[in-house]
Every structure is written in structure tokens, then in C-alpha cells.
Amino acid sequence: MKPYTIISICALALASCTGNGNKNADTTKMAAADTADGGLTAPAQDMEYCFIRTEGTSNQDTTAVHLLVKAGKVTGEMQWIPKEKDARKGTLDGTITGNDIKAVWTFMQEGMKDTLSVDLQLSAQQLLQKPFKVTGEGRQVTDGAAGYTIIYKLDNCSKFKTAAKPAL
Q1: Exposed/middle/buried for 123, CB within 10 Å: 0-12, 13-18, 19+?
Q2: Residues 67-114: pLDDT tens digits?
Q3: Which helix (H) or strand (E) holds 47?
Q4: What is the C-alpha to C-alpha distance for residues 56 and 114, in angstroms, rounded to an integer?
Q5: Measured distance CA(122)–CA(102) in Å, rounded
Q6: Reported pTM
Q7: 132: burial class by Cβ within 10 Å (0-12, 13-18, 19+)?
Q8: Residue 20 buriedness (CB in 10 A; 0-12 / 13-18 / 19+)
Q9: In percent, how much of the chain has pLDDT > 70?
Q10: Pick from 90, 85, 87, 86: which is nearest to 103 by CA?
Q11: If we measure between CA atoms, which residue out of 58, 92, 70 comes closest to residue 160?
């Protein structure tokens, strides 16, 4: 009777190994499909979106983005609020082609007005951003050679409490 028990245990183990191989193949196929189309669901037009990102040792630094997408144009606000530094708060103005947004962020920091180009990718679920780099002159610019590595999560616009929101 013991040999039958050992054989059935080996058969079960073999069957479970074969099952895992198929699951991995399915996952690989899904990952390849996501890579082929960027894994992004196209954003809806004439829509309002809000996203948030927290970072730092205790998630104390916050960046919030509020976007209004209408007929290929993008407007909105962007706020970078680090815990112990001067914040950058301002407006976004740009265009959207497919999922790609090219915008100019006009902001105030330390009482000075400045601008910065921002490259974003928008989906219905998340917002991605290319990181900034510092030039030899000490100025921040978008790193055009970098990927969209900064990830924002969908938010309920809690950082953008205003009395009257702009019309779509």
C-alpha cells in the first residue's frame, strides 16, 4: 500500500509543477501585451482627473496634480509640497496626444515666478511623469531621455479644494 501512496504524492507534485508553468506563461503573455501598448488605458476627453504622490522617509512630501482634459488641451494645477522646504504651487497648460501630455508648469517658489516643462502620460487609473534633472547652470529641466518613472495614484481631488472649479 505504501508504494501507491508515494506514487500518488509524486503525481500530485508533478501536476502542481506543470500548473505553475502555465500560470507563468500566461503572466508573461499578459506582461508582453501590456508592454506592447504601454499598459495604459486611454484617458477620457472632457474629463477632470486628480492624482497624488507621496514620498520621503515617512511619506511626508506630497505632489498633487489636478488636470482638466478637453478637446486635446490640458489645463490644471500642480503642487509640490515638501515637508521642510518651500513649496511650488502653480498652473499647468499643455496639450494631449493619445496618452502623452506636454505641458508647462508655471509656479511660485520663494516669492519668485518660474516655469518648467513637464512630460506626463495619462491613463484612466494613473499618471506617469518623466523625472527632472539639473543642468550645468543649476536649472531643473525634464529629462527627455528618461522613462516615465514617477507614478501618481488616482485621488479624489482632496488637495484641490476650491470654492468654484473651472468648467470643463
Answers
A1: middle
A2: 999 999 999 999 999 988 889 999 999 999 999 999 999 999 999 999
A3: strand 47-55
A4: 24
A5: 11
A6: 0.69
A7: middle
A8: exposed
A9: 70
A10: 90
A11: 92
